[in-house]
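$ fold --in a.seq
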Amino acid sequence: MKTIVLLTLLIPLTAFSRTETETELTTVDSVDLERYLGVWYEVAQIPNRFQKQCVKNTTAEYSLKEKGKIRVVNRCTNKDGEIETVEGTAKVVDKATNARLKVSFVSILGINLFWGDYWIIGLDAEYKWAIVGTPSRKYGWILSRTSELTDVQWEQINGILTEKGYDTERFVRTEQGVDNE
């Protein structure tokens, strides 16, 4: 009897304690990695501790490495006007879609450590912009092939973010300087 009473009390609590962000995050159906390679401008992000030194001109460049891995080079300008660069490795963890990757920026003796989720949750049909997120929705980035997006593109992206359970107000636009398109 105690078990039934306890379960009766806990079931409503768990139902009400679930938040929308606890629903499973879905990715795009398919990513053509060849088309995804190249330079992307970060046009917005959810602020995070590992990018706090970046104040503008943040980019990510992806290129193929050996064994199907992807070289990631992130660059930004810090508050002193200096360019900061960090290199990492990404690997596809969902080969059926290529939309779920893991990325690491820590390597010791050629062994990557501390892998983080990199899920492509939104992608323009022409690969003009992409939305990258994590299952926890703690992190998020909006990337573009150009340093600016149109109002229509922002509407599309905000619609996808909302649909995926992200709070669009958490995203901060990234200042971009000279456009190297």
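$ fold --in b.seq
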Amino acid sequence: MSIRRIDVARGLADTGSMKAKDQYLQIRVSPAEKTAIQTAAARAGLDMSGWVLGKLLPPEPRTFQALVADLAGNPARRRYALAELNDFLAGLGAAGLARAVADEPAVALEPYLANYVAAMVETAAHHADVASPRWTAAVPTLGEPMFGTTLPGLRLYLLLHSPPAFRRRNLFVDSTVGDRV
């Protein structure tokens, strides 16, 4: 049986966009394995390199890290970045969520944002019926309560109706992962 070589170009993620593919990874497969890879890639609408890389380096962790980096990097976009993170987490199934949030954020977040992200991840994990990643427990809870509104009349409502993961972190909000206001 002869073994054929396929070259898989390797690109590096750059906050969601791909840099130039300038590295190669060579693997040896049998003709039957190559045909199986070609068939699976075609079914997925990808080339062989894209399909193999998608299996080895799933996009969810890169997307999560890019969204958190965006949240940390631009205070003017904070609300939009939180909404994008919300949509991303809400759209994942159990396996995708577990892959996406397995590693703690690579960027340093101010305590408020670190707690907000941890609460979002814990809530999404609860909804998906998967365990929260360990890194969320290591995020120190806020010392003072933070409310999602400046209106004093709504604070009692938020104290009573905030999702549990947010309340545990001294965050009082009206909606949670998957919700829209």
